[in-house]
Structures are given as structure tokens and as C-alpha cells.
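Hello,

Following up on my earlier ticket. Below are the two sequence lines again, exactly as submitted.
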Amino acid sequence: MALPNDYTGQACSLARSLEIIGERWTLLIVRDAFWGVRRYADFIDHLRMPRAVLASRLKALTAAGVMTRVAGERHLEYELTDKGTALWPVVLSLMSWGDDFCALDGPRRLFRHAADGGQVDQWGRCETCGKPVPAADTIVAPGPGLEPPADDDSWVTTALTGPHRLLEPLRTAAAVLSRTGRSPEVTPRDSAKIE
Amino acid sequence: MALPNDYTGQACSLARSLEIIGERWTLLIVRDAFWGVRRYADFIDHLRMPRAVLASRLKALTAAGVMTRVAGERHLEYELTDKGTALWPVVLSLMSWGDDFCALDGPRRLFRHAADGGQVDQWGRCETCGKPVPAADTIVAPGPGLEPPADDDSWVTTALTGPHRLLEPLRTAAAVLSRTGRSPEVTPRDSAKIE
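Thanks for your patience. The regenerated structure is below:
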């Protein structure tokens, strides 16, 4: 069924937000950016979405000021702007709701406050110190519902089986080694990623 | 471009949430249900969306257990279940983000804690008592960005120019009067709504 591309006549801030991030896949791209995914090929590899759709969504997100293109070491990278980072409560609340009502084995990801290790609740507060925890001070860690990675999973999936600070670039072990100048112990999988 | 109807291979709770509430218009219907809209004709009147789309979205929302059909006074009504009410942090965080980045004249709606009148922040906490405020204890009130209702606006828009407790059924003045047995002072507009 054909629908207009915007919510005509809906001046509400919710409708305006949905015009920017309500497209299919868009919030999953934003979520991956919080996880530290930055490269086009890595979004494709992790999200397994059509290339043309990713290109169109990244274009819309940069046009809306949610993401920005920055020079990476070998490739252009995408990162969240302040406007994009401010979407953390949206991502967190949607994920918590899915955990509460759709995740039979419990949450796949848990969030901790980097400062004191306290668990972050669905409202984004640290259960230890009671303060709101910005994305940049949040550690994502595997939860009880996270299945072990499969053989054909993306390196991003594997990297996210360990704790990781939100927004910090997620790098392959090989990329980190090559950056630090140490002799890389590159697996065939890793080497394919840093062509 | 054709896309699959689900996020194939995305087991994340965010993807599962989006499968339920990520369709175009769905979150605006849920928002209206928080405002107290309950009748099919009133969703149509307020949202000005195609009837077939509303029917399809309400069907999906009831199948997913987010909304349920209940007998109203004269018509079937739709109301949020506990699962649906648990979406309040999602609606609030999306609306706050839109307010912060897309609303030039300031928020159109403000939220207050019914218990002490404290303002509710984007994380759903009362700025006076510091407690998280459930939807049912929240008063929605007009904010500085709310434009005055236009002549052809729905009665829902007009009703929401005053403070209103979330989830409490929004009724026309005429409907309230007829319920309380007092002689109704019905305007032509109101009488059209309670056919």
C-alpha cells in the first residue's frame, strides 16, 4: 500500500523523529554505530542488509545530521554526531522493551556504568549510583540470552561477545595490531576485513 | 525497493521491537492511545491516516498483545495492555529527541508528575521527587511549541490543549455530560462525534 513519505499534518515531535529514524533498518544502523561499527563494509557484513538500502539510509542519516563521515585509517568511516548520540535513550528503551517482552532467554546485552560497574536500567540510570549514564560511559556486555557466535557470523558479532565501551571504534584484532606496529597474528577471516 | 517484512537474522531485542512497532504510523497510534484516544473513528479523525492502514495496524497491535479491544459505551474501543503501556519510555524518548533537535518553538507537550507536579525529564524521572514516573501517573500539558487549534482540527486536538492524565479516556464534553446524566450542551461538532 502506498503511503506518503512523511506524516502529513503531524507536527508532533514524535512524528518528526520518526521521519528521521523511522525508516526500516535505520535504527539498526544507529544501534551498530553505538556498538562501534564505523565502516560501510562492516555495517553490510554485520547487518546483512542490501547495499543500496544501507547507502540510502547513511545518506539520509548524514543529511539529517545524525551521522557524519570522517576519515578513517584506510577508508571513510561513519560516526554518530552529538545529535545521533542523543538517540541512546531511544535505542536503550526499545531494546529493554524487546528484552522484557520478546526475549525468552533473557537479554542478549547488558549495560553497565563504566565508572562503578553498576547495571544501567531501562531508563538509562545506574542502579549503583543512581545517575543517568551517557552512552559514552556505558559498557555493553553479553547477557544470558546471547547465543554463541556461529561459524559464518561477522567479526563484529564475535567482537561483541566481550565487553565493549559504547561509541568506541570496534576494530579487528588484526587492525589493532597493525596500528600498534606489532607483528599481526592475522587469521584468514581478519585479513579479509582489512583489505 | 522490496525489503523483507522482518529483520532476517537480527535476533537483537531492538529488531524484535521494531518488528512490532516499527511499521509506519504504528507509534503514532500508540502515542494517541497514551493520549487517551480509544475509538477507531477518533484515531482516523486525529491522525488523518488511511482507514485501511489503521485497520491493519490495529490488527497487528492486538495480535502482538500491545493493544486490546474492549467494549466501550457505544462502540468497541482499543486500549493499551500492560505490554503496550510499557512502551511509554520509547514514546517519551523519541518525543524528547524530536523536541531537542526538531522543534524550533520548544516542546509542544510537557509532562508532569501527577503526584507533585514535578516536570518529567527525557529519562522519565520526576525532577522534583527524582522517581521514575509511570505513564498512568503522568499529566500531559500543552508546551510553548503547541500551536492553537485550527478550525478543521479534530476534537482530540482541541481536547489536548488542556492538561490530561495519560491513558485516561479522552471524551468529548458532550459524551461526559451524557454519561453523567446532565443535560448536554452539545455543539454541532461534538454531536457529530457521538453518533
